[in-house]
Amino acid sequence: MQDALNRPEETADEARVGPNAILQVAAALRAAGGEAEARRVFEAAGLLPLLAAPPTAMTRQSAAAALHLALRDALPEAAAERIQADAGRRTADYLLANRIPRPAQWLLKALPGRLAAPILLKSIRANAWTFAGSGRVTAAWDGRRARIEILDNPLATPGCPWHVAVFERLFRTLVDARTQVAHPACCARGALHCRFEIIPAGVPAGHAHAGDPGKESA
To answer: End of a domain among 38, 55, 88?
Structure first.
């Protein structure tokens, strides 16, 4: 019987997100608690078939959202947040290894943080559908910090550890190793949008220079 997750009538018009929103949660669960833990959470989300046959292309945002919510329900809060954060870092590592060209990475690492940050932010904004699905994304750089907002974030969970970890890893690797990411507004906590404020430590008041100590070497 065709799996319900793949019925065309249920998926034709639904927004999609990148498969890493599911794949890397599975990897983080296995790393933390083994195959049994992963099966327990995927089964609770009604997504056990996706554990055996992981998605290889864009996947339904409702499936990814169900998995992240099931993870928060199945595990203690701190443990769930650690797994989501690990999944976020794994997602960023995948992007660095497979989606962001090496020459672009070398260029970003070589640039002053004040120049590298808005370039990376523009790339993140251009690929927002992979982590925001139907959510509406805006992004801005004011010379000192980046701000990303996702209106009606479909993958929101309290504190959004997955999103925070993705942004943090990308900016720490490509812009400034001391970057901090704050999440002062969250859809899962009643806000209309999720807001992420990304602050590279080596970009004080918009006047960073080449050779900032916070920059990682190429």
So the answer is: 88
Task: Please indicate, yes or no, whether residues 191 and 120 belong to a single structural domain of this protein.
Answer: yes
- Judge whether 37 lies within some domain: yes
pLDDT at 202: 75
The verdict on 140 and 55 lying in the same domain is no
Q: Mark whether 177 and 130 lie in a shared domain.
A: yes
Q: What is the pLDDT of residue 7?
A: 30
Distance, C-alpha 97 to centroid of its chain: 15
Tell me the per-residue pLDDT of 94-112, one tens digit each, with 9 for 90 and over: 999 999 999 999 999 999 9
Give me the domain span that covers residue 19. Answer: 7-88
CA dihedral 165, 168, 174, 178 (to 10 degrees): -140
Report the chain's terminal Cα–Cα distance, integer Å. Answer: 51
**Residue 33 in tokens:** 């608690």
What is the pLDDT, as a whole number, of residue 174?
98
pTM of the entire structure? 0.87
Strand segments, DSSP code E, in the chain are 16-17, 59-60, 136-141, 146-151, 180-185, 193-199
Q: Which of 151, 99, 159, 156 is nearest to 124 (CA)?
A: 99
Cβ atoms of 59 and 22 closer than 8 Å: yes
Domain tally for the chain? 2
In which residue ranges of the chain is pLDDT below 70?
A: 1-12, 204-218
